[in-house]
Amino acid sequence: MEATIATPDVNKGAWTGGGKEPLGASYGKMMMWFFIVSDALTFSGFLVSYGLMRFKFFDSWPIADEVFTHVPFTHGHYPMYYVAFMTFILIFSSVTMVLAVDAGHQMKKSKVSLYMLLTIIGGLIFLGSQAWEWKNFIGGTYGALQLQDGKIVQFVNAEGHQVALKDFVVKSNSERVPHTRSNGLWFVKDAGAVPEFTVSDVVKSFKANPEINLRTEQVDLATKKKVILSRAEANKFLAKATDVVKGANLKVNEYGKTLFADFFFFITGFHGFHVFSGIMINIIIFFNVIIGTYERRGHYEMIEKVGLYWHFVDLVWVFVFTFFYLV
Amino acid sequence: MTHAESHTGLIWKVFGILSLITIVEVFLGIHKPDSLYLTHFLGTSILNIIFLVLTLVKAYGIAWYFMHLKQEKAGLRRAIVWTAVFLICYLATLVLIEGNYLGDILSSYTKWNY
Question: What pTM did the predictor assign?
Fold first, then answer.
């Protein structure tokens, strides 16, 4: 059999312990690249399926600028600023990671540990921001009505800016109590929290406020803005309203298509989980650096390998950012 | 591999370029100038094409300089990049053509009045 092996080596098999380095890459690095390429294809599968649904509903997809408008400690309409900050944080943690790799090549233990620590902190800030973004998306901003065929209608003022339900809806006196199994029908489930307003409250208040208009999900393709209805049409739409919606979850989404929320939770959630595992791996490697594991091993290649994973997470975010927030 | 020269200068330069691209993207994303946004080019708007190109430039910066693809052997680099780029383009092209078709069909059946 030895004749079929290009460089016979009795001590080491082709892959054991990185004895052989095909294409100049050690075993660990090669395997990290195998993982990254396959994970890249997984993410592309998700993003392409998002694209499929976006193309399918090209005339009624939510406009991301109107969905993600929150900035901490302020109120108002600030599209994109916070997600730009998140992108910046992730790129910066990529830089500290690559600086750690660079310091590792020069066997500078204290520099490696400092940069690893900064990378971990950057990852934690990103993850916290992600959680905050989710909280806002789940909690909602304005509230909307859902029609019986699942369409969402939102309320806008004379300038075309969205108006929150709580700013114009007058509550009726009827008290709404969440349904419980013990004092009602045991086979009926209340769908989550009881909304603050009833559908008839909203419709009545809409009719009392002539300056408020109704906006549909439909996008006017010439101006790329959502279509605002006339009062007469709006009343026909409101006659079909069945639910008051506040916030977004996997079943309903006040900003428009439920699929948008589903994909947002799934893709940013999957990416966030990658960031989480990246932080965990970084922490383990950070402690290994501190106790001198790589100093004794004679090289810091492990930093390079976890670095590849961390940069990949950043790379994916670049695409998620583009397809969810920009395009 | 040991005691290699330091590349910190290059790293900060790449960081500067990536940050600049992000700032340009965010600026365009917030303002959406009508002259770019309300156009039709290659099946989408010029603004979206700009976003895609800038994204690919960012991806190149991250992969080549942060992930050290530039320093890897050409064979390894090609095995990684060509494989992924080919498969992703293939998937995206076919699926988005299908999505376009679904959208065309669906929009003629969707009612926007009652």
Answer: 0.89
